[in-house]
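ok trying again, last paste got cut off:
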Amino acid sequence: METNNKKPYYAAGLGAFIIWGFIPFPLKALAAYPSGQILYFRVALSVVLLLAISLLFRRKQLQQTFKQLKAAAVREKRLFALYTFLGGALLTTNWLTFIYVVNHIDIQTGSFSYLLCPILTAVLGFLLLKEELRANQWLAIGLSALSCVLIGTGELTSLLFSLLIALSYAFYLITQRILKAYDKIVLLKLQLLLAFVFIGPFYAYFAGLAGASLDAHFFLQVSLLSAGFTVLPLFLNLFALKELTSGTIGILMYINPILNFVMAFLYFNEHTTALKVAAYLLIFLSVIIYNLRLKSRRQDGDGLVIPPVGTTAVGK
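nice, full thing came through this time. structure:
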């Protein structure tokens, strides 16, 4: 009976990561435009949508967050400002790099980075937050490092971009864990506003490089990217976390890069090498090993795994 009651939450979690798994479609449809210009309008429209939703449906959470911050000690306010600023900068870096990689390198590189990201996050959690790791998780980390060596041996550029995407997202997740006492949607709105401020002064540069005019096709695809591949899965993910543990969400997260890989080969006809295949198999194996004995892990309902670029993580 309990499982049946949780079906809507499982469906929401699956739906969120399946949607994020298809994000290459709207991104590829915008390949003729500069990555920075795509990012600018995606952030702008996402902010407008999130603000509208908050004012119409989540005003209470918005007010509570500001009351909570107002009552906080001076040091906590400074940390809030610092980590919110860092979160906005990291999210901007992550989204911009992912858009560029999908449109100008290949989908495989972007997908590899998000398989790598949870393990990098675990390493950073160990180094920065003193979180414990089990023996099988250290083995998974070692295998992930070996997969990076294989990628770097064949294509150093792909490895560097994968690491940039994975590290920016992993550091973003760390900042969100530190701010876990605050409402995640409110934090995301603030971070996206900061992202808009970061990239706003450079818009003239982005627009000057545009290879095509901003027509109805552009705004249709960016609107789809913002509403359908950012805000909608974000709220589905948030709904799922009301009943599902962050560990369960973490497992569901792998649907996203797996779908990316499938589309890269079957739909977009990307090619690969034997070295890359070996690296991909190693990272898949490391993911399985890392999640062994998941039920024995300490579950923390405060956390929320955030998907990539096209995804934002809301709630860690």
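cool. DSSP finds 14 helices and no strands in the chain. Residues 74-104 form the longest helix (31 residues).
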